[in-house]
Amino acid sequence: MKNKYPLSSSTWDDKEIKAINKVIDNNQYTMGKHVDLFENAFSKYIGSKFSVMVNSGSSANLLTIASLFYRKHKPLKRGDEVIVPAVSWSTTYNPLLQYGLKLKFVDIDLNTLNYDLEQLNYAITENTKLLVLVNLLGNPNDFNEIKKITKSKNIIIVEDNCESMGAEFEKKKAGTFGEIGTFSSFFSHHISTMEGGIIVTNDEELYHIILSLRAHGWTRNLPNKSMIHTKAKDSFEEQFKFILPGYNLRPLEMSGAIGIEQLKKLPLFINNRIKNAKYFQEVFSKHEDFTIQTEIGKSSWFGFSFIINECSKLNRKELIKYLLKSGIETRPIVTGNFINNPVIKYFDYEIFNTLSNANRAHNYGFFIGNHHYDIREEIDYLKLTIDKFINENK
Cα(first)–Cα(last) distance of the chain, in Å? Predict the structure, then answer.
């Protein structure tokens, strides 16, 4: 059956195609002026001093963690404890494993899908060196409460904001509350450069470290006098001088050109997503069978989550099958409880208390898409389909 309610849709029109053609005409395909222009525009939009574009949000997370090992003040070390929420995407966690950190998983709040703040408060100890905040499905964390919890504790805070571009808390953009924030511009996200990611920070040293790590660990992309290296006067010496164990995570010049056009449209995209969410809440907020996500601050509504309530007799497997048969695409709520994935056997980790809410989301949750255009008709169809399923299974 043709999809009547898809998970994602293209945000492109002729402007993005023209932007690609400009790059082709200039005959420079890796990082160049369009990437620079996009980084500057993104910094202005998000309210951050520095932005670094990379080839994916996953790469943004990798470079974020890597950079914290090479700073002069308070660098991370292998074996350090990092607190993470039990529900997020795999590449929130993988860089932590790859850099030898010990993960402590903390439960989520079943309503917000972000940290259970009471559990987080008790989970933090003198051994905690890093706190990863994940703004899930467009929903910012309660940064005021987290500030109280972490006050005077000397903990590095980073934000994985890959699902929440444009979200705000008290008129400040999510992704700018930690020392570093990460974003994704993958196809299904708020803006799409097809593959792409962005790292933001106000810390100039971290910015210079990330610039070097992004491109092989060399010095070529650093300013002449940076906080991590002063270039030799002989430019020949600097062409292949390596100071950090880096990667090649550079974005394509086409991605930068597309990003410039997408960023111009982002405010409208966010407004339409918020309008869709308001209608979704009207339709489903009082549904006796489901818990839907409770907004913190101003969500940018990546999508819409459902968790089947304990008192409900609905069978998730059968409901998902029925929705798909009716042309409504679904997916799990991110990875569900990440520790239930087989990959966890490779991690050094512990579980704080229990992860009962994460397990509830894992076993009884699912996710429906939101879009950058009016989808009230699709939401009505979703409600009609769910009601039909319920009536057929009484």
Answer: 25
Structure tokens at 277: 């969410």
Q: How far apart are CA 289 and CA 24, in angstroms?
A: 52
The whole-number average pLDDT for the span 296-317 is 97
Question: E strand or H helix at 262, and its extent?
Answer: helix 253-284
| pLDDT tens column, 11-44 | 999 999 999 999 999 999 999 999 999 999 999 9
What residue spans of 47-166 are helical by DSSP H?
57-67, 90-98, 117-123, 143-150
CATH topology of domain 265-340+355-392: Aspartate Aminotransferase, domain 1 (3.90.1150)
- Point out the residues that are catalytic: 189
For 194, other C-beta atoms within 10 Å of its C-beta total 14
Answer yes or no: is pLDDT of 2 > 90: no
SS3 84: strand
Q: Which of 216, 175, 206 is nearest to 31 (CA)?
A: 216
Alpha-carbon distance of 337 to 356, in angstroms, equals: 9
Read off the pLDDT band of 1 (50, 70, 90). Answer: low
Q: Which CATH architecture has domain 14-261?
A: 3-Layer(aba) Sandwich (3.40)
Q: What share of the chain is helix, strand, coil (3-state, %, to 5)?
A: 40, 20, 40
* Cα gap 353→106, rounded to integer Å: 8
Rounded CA-CA distance 113/332 in Å is 13
Instruction: Compute and round to an integer the Cα radius of gyration of the chain.
Output: 22
Euclidean distance between CA atoms 189 and 222, whole angstroms: 30
pTM, to two decimals: 0.97
Q: Are 330 and 324 in contact (CB under 8 A)?
A: yes
Q: Within 10 A of 102 (CB to CB), how many other CB atoms are there? A: 17
